[in-house]
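User: Please fill in residues for this 381-position structure.
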Protein backbone atom coordinates (compact mmCIF):
# COMPACT_ATOMS: atom_id res chain seq x y z
CA UNK A 1 0.00 0.00 0.00
CA UNK A 2 1.18 3.53 -0.69
CA UNK A 3 1.50 5.98 2.23
CA UNK A 4 -1.63 7.73 0.88
CA UNK A 5 -3.61 4.47 0.78
CA UNK A 6 -2.55 3.73 4.37
CA UNK A 7 -3.79 7.16 5.34
CA UNK A 8 -7.14 6.52 3.65
CA UNK A 9 -7.41 3.24 5.57
CA UNK A 10 -6.58 5.05 8.84
CA UNK A 11 -9.36 7.56 8.15
CA UNK A 12 -11.90 4.72 7.89
CA UNK A 13 -10.66 2.94 11.02
CA UNK A 14 -10.56 6.17 13.03
CA UNK A 15 -14.13 7.02 11.98
CA UNK A 16 -15.22 3.66 13.36
CA UNK A 17 -13.36 4.26 16.63
CA UNK A 18 -14.84 7.75 16.96
CA UNK A 19 -18.31 6.22 16.86
CA UNK A 20 -17.45 3.95 19.81
CA UNK A 21 -15.59 0.86 18.52
CA UNK A 22 -12.58 -0.19 20.60
CA UNK A 23 -9.40 0.46 18.59
CA UNK A 24 -8.18 -3.15 18.59
CA UNK A 25 -11.51 -4.41 17.25
CA UNK A 26 -11.66 -1.77 14.52
CA UNK A 27 -8.11 -2.64 13.41
CA UNK A 28 -8.89 -6.36 13.44
CA UNK A 29 -12.00 -5.83 11.32
CA UNK A 30 -9.96 -3.83 8.83
CA UNK A 31 -7.31 -6.60 8.63
CA UNK A 32 -9.94 -9.27 8.02
CA UNK A 33 -11.53 -7.35 5.17
CA UNK A 34 -8.23 -6.16 3.65
CA UNK A 35 -6.51 -9.36 2.59
CA UNK A 36 -4.29 -7.39 0.19
CA UNK A 37 -2.51 -5.76 3.14
CA UNK A 38 0.85 -7.14 4.29
CA UNK A 39 2.26 -7.14 7.82
CA UNK A 40 4.11 -3.88 7.09
CA UNK A 41 0.83 -2.22 6.08
CA UNK A 42 -0.92 -3.48 9.21
CA UNK A 43 1.89 -2.22 11.44
CA UNK A 44 1.95 1.18 9.67
CA UNK A 45 -1.83 1.51 9.96
CA UNK A 46 -1.69 0.69 13.65
CA UNK A 47 0.98 3.35 14.17
CA UNK A 48 -1.13 5.94 12.31
CA UNK A 49 -4.30 5.11 14.26
CA UNK A 50 -2.69 4.91 17.71
CA UNK A 51 -0.62 8.04 17.05
CA UNK A 52 -3.80 9.94 16.12
CA UNK A 53 -5.65 8.70 19.21
CA UNK A 54 -2.82 9.76 21.51
CA UNK A 55 -3.13 13.29 20.11
CA UNK A 56 -6.80 13.18 19.24
CA UNK A 57 -7.75 16.71 20.26
CA UNK A 58 -4.63 18.48 19.06
CA UNK A 59 -4.78 16.69 15.68
CA UNK A 60 -8.49 17.59 15.40
CA UNK A 61 -7.58 21.22 16.11
CA UNK A 62 -4.84 21.10 13.46
CA UNK A 63 -7.05 19.28 10.95
CA UNK A 64 -10.20 21.31 11.59
CA UNK A 65 -12.53 18.42 12.52
CA UNK A 66 -12.87 15.58 15.01
CA UNK A 67 -13.26 12.97 12.24
CA UNK A 68 -10.92 10.37 10.80
CA UNK A 69 -10.13 12.76 7.95
CA UNK A 70 -9.63 15.72 10.30
CA UNK A 71 -7.23 13.67 12.44
CA UNK A 72 -5.18 12.56 9.43
CA UNK A 73 -4.99 16.12 8.06
CA UNK A 74 -3.89 17.14 11.56
CA UNK A 75 -1.29 14.38 11.59
CA UNK A 76 0.04 15.42 8.18
CA UNK A 77 0.27 19.06 9.35
CA UNK A 78 1.93 18.13 12.66
CA UNK A 79 4.55 16.06 10.84
CA UNK A 80 4.93 18.49 7.91
CA UNK A 81 4.11 15.70 5.45
CA UNK A 82 3.62 16.43 1.72
CA UNK A 83 -0.08 17.28 1.90
CA UNK A 84 -0.83 17.49 -1.84
CA UNK A 85 0.81 14.11 -2.50
CA UNK A 86 -1.06 12.33 0.33
CA UNK A 87 -4.44 14.01 -0.20
CA UNK A 88 -4.48 13.76 -3.99
CA UNK A 89 -7.75 11.91 -4.61
CA UNK A 90 -5.87 9.64 -7.03
CA UNK A 91 -5.91 5.84 -6.80
CA UNK A 92 -6.54 4.84 -3.18
CA UNK A 93 -5.53 8.21 -1.73
CA UNK A 94 -7.96 10.35 0.30
CA UNK A 95 -9.74 13.17 -1.57
CA UNK A 96 -7.87 16.41 -2.18
CA UNK A 97 -8.24 19.08 0.50
CA UNK A 98 -11.30 21.33 0.11
CA UNK A 99 -10.75 25.08 0.11
CA UNK A 100 -11.97 25.27 3.71
CA UNK A 101 -9.64 22.48 4.81
CA UNK A 102 -6.68 24.08 3.06
CA UNK A 103 -7.47 27.49 4.57
CA UNK A 104 -8.02 26.18 8.12
CA UNK A 105 -5.87 28.01 10.66
CA UNK A 106 -5.47 26.10 13.93
CA UNK A 107 -5.99 27.91 17.20
CA UNK A 108 -4.22 26.97 20.46
CA UNK A 109 -3.45 23.26 20.61
CA UNK A 110 -5.07 21.38 23.51
CA UNK A 111 -3.15 19.08 25.87
CA UNK A 112 -4.92 15.89 24.71
CA UNK A 113 -6.58 15.18 28.04
CA UNK A 114 -10.34 14.71 28.41
CA UNK A 115 -11.78 18.03 29.72
CA UNK A 116 -13.61 16.45 32.67
CA UNK A 117 -10.40 14.81 33.93
CA UNK A 118 -8.10 17.85 33.85
CA UNK A 119 -8.70 18.91 37.50
CA UNK A 120 -8.02 15.35 38.75
CA UNK A 121 -4.91 15.12 36.59
CA UNK A 122 -3.53 18.42 37.91
CA UNK A 123 -4.35 17.55 41.51
CA UNK A 124 -2.52 14.20 41.21
CA UNK A 125 0.55 15.38 39.30
CA UNK A 126 0.95 19.00 40.43
CA UNK A 127 3.80 20.78 38.68
CA UNK A 128 4.43 17.70 36.48
CA UNK A 129 0.85 17.61 35.12
CA UNK A 130 1.55 19.23 31.72
CA UNK A 131 4.79 17.32 31.18
CA UNK A 132 3.15 13.97 31.97
CA UNK A 133 0.18 14.78 29.70
CA UNK A 134 2.65 15.57 26.90
CA UNK A 135 4.58 12.35 27.56
CA UNK A 136 1.31 10.42 27.21
CA UNK A 137 1.07 11.57 23.58
CA UNK A 138 4.27 9.69 22.65
CA UNK A 139 4.71 6.06 21.71
CA UNK A 140 5.70 3.86 24.67
CA UNK A 141 9.01 2.03 24.50
CA UNK A 142 9.08 -1.76 24.76
CA UNK A 143 10.65 -3.02 28.01
CA UNK A 144 11.80 -6.52 28.87
CA UNK A 145 12.36 -8.04 32.29
CA UNK A 146 15.37 -10.34 32.49
CA UNK A 147 14.38 -13.52 34.27
CA UNK A 148 17.11 -13.56 36.93
CA UNK A 149 16.07 -17.11 37.86
CA UNK A 150 17.40 -18.17 34.41
CA UNK A 151 20.10 -15.75 33.30
CA UNK A 152 21.77 -12.40 33.93
CA UNK A 153 21.24 -9.14 31.99
CA UNK A 154 24.43 -9.57 29.91
CA UNK A 155 23.39 -13.12 28.89
CA UNK A 156 19.90 -12.01 27.91
CA UNK A 157 21.24 -9.03 25.94
CA UNK A 158 23.71 -11.22 24.04
CA UNK A 159 21.04 -13.79 23.18
CA UNK A 160 18.65 -11.08 21.94
CA UNK A 161 21.40 -9.32 19.98
CA UNK A 162 22.25 -12.60 18.19
CA UNK A 163 18.75 -12.37 16.68
CA UNK A 164 18.94 -8.67 15.87
CA UNK A 165 17.05 -7.36 18.92
CA UNK A 166 19.08 -4.51 20.37
CA UNK A 167 18.52 -3.57 24.01
CA UNK A 168 19.82 -1.13 26.58
CA UNK A 169 19.87 -1.55 30.36
CA UNK A 170 17.79 0.78 32.49
CA UNK A 171 19.83 3.10 34.72
CA UNK A 172 17.24 2.50 37.43
CA UNK A 173 17.14 -1.31 37.33
CA UNK A 174 19.84 -3.40 35.60
CA UNK A 175 17.45 -6.32 34.97
CA UNK A 176 15.12 -4.06 32.94
CA UNK A 177 16.05 -3.83 29.24
CA UNK A 178 14.69 -1.25 26.85
CA UNK A 179 14.36 -2.53 23.29
CA UNK A 180 16.09 -0.05 20.99
CA UNK A 181 15.83 -1.92 17.67
CA UNK A 182 13.71 -4.65 16.12
CA UNK A 183 10.88 -4.67 18.69
CA UNK A 184 8.67 -6.85 16.55
CA UNK A 185 11.22 -9.70 16.61
CA UNK A 186 11.11 -10.07 20.42
CA UNK A 187 8.17 -12.48 20.63
CA UNK A 188 9.74 -14.98 18.21
CA UNK A 189 13.26 -14.69 19.63
CA UNK A 190 14.87 -17.69 21.39
CA UNK A 191 15.51 -15.59 24.50
CA UNK A 192 11.79 -14.88 24.83
CA UNK A 193 10.61 -18.38 23.97
CA UNK A 194 13.11 -19.95 26.40
CA UNK A 195 11.95 -17.71 29.26
CA UNK A 196 15.13 -15.64 29.58
CA UNK A 197 13.07 -12.46 29.22
CA UNK A 198 9.44 -11.44 29.66
CA UNK A 199 7.66 -8.44 28.20
CA UNK A 200 6.98 -6.10 31.13
CA UNK A 201 6.97 -2.34 31.39
CA UNK A 202 9.70 -0.67 33.46
CA UNK A 203 7.41 0.79 36.15
CA UNK A 204 5.86 -2.48 37.39
CA UNK A 205 9.38 -3.92 37.39
CA UNK A 206 10.53 -1.05 39.61
CA UNK A 207 7.50 -1.59 41.84
CA UNK A 208 8.22 -5.32 42.20
CA UNK A 209 11.85 -4.49 43.03
CA UNK A 210 10.53 -2.50 46.03
CA UNK A 211 8.69 -5.48 47.53
CA UNK A 212 10.12 -6.86 50.80
CA UNK A 213 11.16 -10.32 49.60
CA UNK A 214 12.88 -12.78 51.96
CA UNK A 215 13.75 -16.49 51.55
CA UNK A 216 10.71 -18.82 51.47
CA UNK A 217 8.28 -15.90 51.65
CA UNK A 218 4.64 -16.85 51.00
CA UNK A 219 3.02 -14.60 48.41
CA UNK A 220 -0.57 -14.28 47.26
CA UNK A 221 -1.07 -12.40 43.98
CA UNK A 222 -4.77 -11.71 44.48
CA UNK A 223 -5.53 -10.07 41.12
CA UNK A 224 -3.06 -12.17 39.16
CA UNK A 225 -4.56 -11.95 35.65
CA UNK A 226 -1.85 -13.13 33.24
CA UNK A 227 0.58 -13.34 36.16
CA UNK A 228 3.01 -10.53 35.30
CA UNK A 229 3.58 -9.62 38.96
CA UNK A 230 3.67 -13.27 40.17
CA UNK A 231 6.43 -14.05 37.69
CA UNK A 232 8.38 -10.86 38.44
CA UNK A 233 8.35 -11.74 42.16
CA UNK A 234 9.37 -15.34 41.44
CA UNK A 235 12.27 -14.15 39.30
CA UNK A 236 13.62 -12.04 42.17
CA UNK A 237 13.00 -14.67 44.87
CA UNK A 238 12.93 -18.12 43.19
CA UNK A 239 12.21 -19.95 46.48
CA UNK A 240 9.12 -17.79 47.17
CA UNK A 241 5.95 -19.84 47.64
CA UNK A 242 3.70 -18.29 45.01
CA UNK A 243 -0.10 -18.46 44.85
CA UNK A 244 -2.03 -16.76 42.06
CA UNK A 245 -5.72 -15.88 42.36
CA UNK A 246 -8.16 -13.97 40.18
CA UNK A 247 -11.91 -13.40 40.36
CA UNK A 248 -11.97 -14.44 36.69
CA UNK A 249 -9.81 -17.59 36.74
CA UNK A 250 -9.86 -17.91 32.93
CA UNK A 251 -7.55 -14.88 32.87
CA UNK A 252 -4.88 -17.04 34.53
CA UNK A 253 -5.16 -19.78 31.88
CA UNK A 254 -1.69 -19.15 30.44
CA UNK A 255 0.01 -18.70 33.80
CA UNK A 256 1.08 -22.34 34.42
CA UNK A 257 2.79 -22.44 31.00
CA UNK A 258 4.41 -19.03 31.51
CA UNK A 259 5.62 -20.10 34.97
CA UNK A 260 7.06 -23.34 33.58
CA UNK A 261 8.85 -21.37 30.83
CA UNK A 262 10.31 -19.12 33.53
CA UNK A 263 11.38 -22.13 35.65
CA UNK A 264 8.96 -21.25 38.49
CA UNK A 265 6.22 -23.06 40.39
CA UNK A 266 2.96 -21.20 40.97
CA UNK A 267 -0.18 -22.56 42.65
CA UNK A 268 -3.22 -21.24 40.80
CA UNK A 269 -6.48 -20.99 42.72
CA UNK A 270 -9.93 -19.44 42.55
CA UNK A 271 -10.25 -19.45 46.38
CA UNK A 272 -7.58 -17.75 48.49
CA UNK A 273 -7.24 -19.72 51.76
CA UNK A 274 -4.94 -19.05 54.71
CA UNK A 275 -2.67 -16.09 55.31
CA UNK A 276 0.42 -14.88 53.48
CA UNK A 277 3.54 -12.83 54.28
CA UNK A 278 2.90 -10.70 51.21
CA UNK A 279 -0.38 -10.08 49.41
CA UNK A 280 -0.25 -8.21 46.11
CA UNK A 281 -3.44 -6.44 45.03
CA UNK A 282 -2.78 -5.23 41.47
CA UNK A 283 -6.34 -4.01 41.14
CA UNK A 284 -8.48 -3.21 38.09
CA UNK A 285 -8.05 0.51 37.39
CA UNK A 286 -8.58 3.26 34.84
CA UNK A 287 -5.21 2.46 33.25
CA UNK A 288 -4.53 6.20 33.09
CA UNK A 289 -0.82 5.41 33.43
CA UNK A 290 -0.81 3.27 30.29
CA UNK A 291 -2.58 5.60 27.88
CA UNK A 292 0.46 5.67 25.58
CA UNK A 293 -0.32 2.01 24.81
CA UNK A 294 -4.14 2.14 24.89
CA UNK A 295 -4.91 5.70 23.81
CA UNK A 296 -8.55 5.00 22.97
CA UNK A 297 -9.13 4.13 26.66
CA UNK A 298 -8.24 7.74 27.51
CA UNK A 299 -11.29 8.94 25.62
CA UNK A 300 -13.62 6.18 26.81
CA UNK A 301 -13.07 6.77 30.55
CA UNK A 302 -15.75 8.88 32.20
CA UNK A 303 -16.63 9.89 35.77
CA UNK A 304 -19.18 7.09 36.43
CA UNK A 305 -16.68 4.47 35.23
CA UNK A 306 -13.90 5.95 37.36
CA UNK A 307 -16.21 6.02 40.41
CA UNK A 308 -17.14 2.38 39.76
CA UNK A 309 -13.47 1.37 39.60
CA UNK A 310 -12.69 3.21 42.84
CA UNK A 311 -15.54 1.33 44.57
CA UNK A 312 -14.29 -2.05 43.23
CA UNK A 313 -10.74 -1.27 44.39
CA UNK A 314 -12.00 -0.50 47.92
CA UNK A 315 -13.96 -3.79 47.97
CA UNK A 316 -10.91 -5.77 46.88
CA UNK A 317 -8.72 -4.09 49.51
CA UNK A 318 -11.19 -5.04 52.25
CA UNK A 319 -11.55 -8.54 50.79
CA UNK A 320 -7.81 -9.30 51.02
CA UNK A 321 -7.36 -8.16 54.63
CA UNK A 322 -7.89 -11.68 56.13
CA UNK A 323 -5.22 -13.06 53.76
CA UNK A 324 -2.48 -10.78 55.15
CA UNK A 325 -0.63 -12.49 58.02
CA UNK A 326 0.06 -10.44 61.19
CA UNK A 327 3.30 -8.56 60.52
CA UNK A 328 2.79 -9.16 56.80
CA UNK A 329 2.48 -6.69 53.94
CA UNK A 330 -0.24 -5.73 51.51
CA UNK A 331 1.17 -4.28 48.29
CA UNK A 332 -1.51 -2.19 46.60
CA UNK A 333 -0.78 -1.47 42.93
CA UNK A 334 -2.48 0.39 40.09
CA UNK A 335 -1.38 1.42 36.62
CA UNK A 336 -3.05 4.77 37.20
CA UNK A 337 -1.72 8.21 38.08
CA UNK A 338 -5.00 9.47 39.58
CA UNK A 339 -5.21 10.18 43.33
CA UNK A 340 -8.74 8.76 43.61
CA UNK A 341 -7.29 5.33 42.74
CA UNK A 342 -3.98 5.83 44.57
CA UNK A 343 -3.31 8.03 47.61
CA UNK A 344 -6.97 8.80 48.34
CA UNK A 345 -7.89 5.13 48.05
CA UNK A 346 -5.11 4.17 50.45
CA UNK A 347 -6.11 6.90 52.93
CA UNK A 348 -9.71 5.58 52.97
CA UNK A 349 -8.45 2.02 53.47
CA UNK A 350 -6.26 3.05 56.42
CA UNK A 351 -9.23 4.88 57.98
CA UNK A 352 -11.32 1.69 57.70
CA UNK A 353 -8.54 -0.74 58.69
CA UNK A 354 -6.58 0.60 61.68
CA UNK A 355 -4.53 -2.62 61.92
CA UNK A 356 -2.59 -1.42 58.84
CA UNK A 357 -0.09 1.40 58.45
CA UNK A 358 1.47 2.93 55.36
CA UNK A 359 5.09 1.80 55.11
CA UNK A 360 5.67 3.87 51.94
CA UNK A 361 4.21 4.65 48.55
CA UNK A 362 5.52 5.73 45.17
CA UNK A 363 4.14 6.99 41.87
CA UNK A 364 6.07 6.40 38.67
CA UNK A 365 5.23 8.34 35.50
CA UNK A 366 6.42 8.21 31.88
CA UNK A 367 8.95 10.87 32.89
CA UNK A 368 11.07 8.03 34.33
CA UNK A 369 10.69 5.97 31.13
CA UNK A 370 7.93 3.50 32.01
CA UNK A 371 4.17 3.77 32.31
CA UNK A 372 2.33 5.53 35.11
CA UNK A 373 2.23 3.11 38.06
CA UNK A 374 1.51 3.34 41.77
CA UNK A 375 2.63 1.17 44.70
CA UNK A 376 1.60 1.50 48.35
CA UNK A 377 3.13 -0.82 50.94
CA UNK A 378 0.64 -1.40 53.78
CA UNK A 379 2.02 -3.25 56.78
CA UNK A 380 -0.25 -5.15 59.12
CA UNK A 381 0.38 -4.83 62.87
C1 LIG B 1 -4.73 -4.96 36.51
S1 LIG B 1 -5.32 -6.55 36.21
C2 LIG B 1 -4.04 -7.55 36.85
C3 LIG B 1 -2.82 -7.68 35.98
C4 LIG B 1 -1.85 -8.74 36.46
N1 LIG B 1 -1.55 -8.61 37.87
C5 LIG B 1 -0.57 -8.76 35.67
O1 LIG B 1 0.48 -8.34 36.18
O2 LIG B 1 -0.58 -9.24 34.53
C6 LIG B 1 -6.57 -6.75 37.38
C7 LIG B 1 -7.11 -8.15 37.55
O3 LIG B 1 -8.01 -8.11 38.65
C8 LIG B 1 -9.01 -9.09 38.42
N2 LIG B 1 -10.14 -8.79 39.32
C9 LIG B 1 -11.20 -7.99 39.11
N3 LIG B 1 -12.01 -7.97 40.20
C10 LIG B 1 -11.44 -8.78 41.12
C11 LIG B 1 -11.79 -9.19 42.43
N4 LIG B 1 -12.89 -8.74 43.02
N5 LIG B 1 -10.99 -10.05 43.06
C12 LIG B 1 -9.87 -10.52 42.47
N6 LIG B 1 -9.48 -10.17 41.22
C13 LIG B 1 -10.25 -9.31 40.55
C14 LIG B 1 -9.28 -8.99 36.95
O4 LIG B 1 -9.83 -10.19 36.46
C15 LIG B 1 -7.88 -8.70 36.38
O5 LIG B 1 -7.26 -9.88 35.94
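Assistant: Residues filled in for all 381 positions:
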Amino acid sequence: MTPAARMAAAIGVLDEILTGSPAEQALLRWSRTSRFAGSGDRAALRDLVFGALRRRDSYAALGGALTGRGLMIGHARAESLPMARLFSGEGHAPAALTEAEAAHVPTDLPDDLPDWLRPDWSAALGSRAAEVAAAMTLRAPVWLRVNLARTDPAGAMASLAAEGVETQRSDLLPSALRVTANERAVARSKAYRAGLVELQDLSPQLACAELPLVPRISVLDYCAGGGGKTLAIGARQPDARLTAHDAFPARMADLPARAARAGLRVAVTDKAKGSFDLVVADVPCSGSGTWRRTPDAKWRLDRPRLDGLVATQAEILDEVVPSVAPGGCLAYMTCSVLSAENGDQVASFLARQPAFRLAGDQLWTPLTGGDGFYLAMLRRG
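For context: The chain has three domains: 3-110, 143-200, 211-380.
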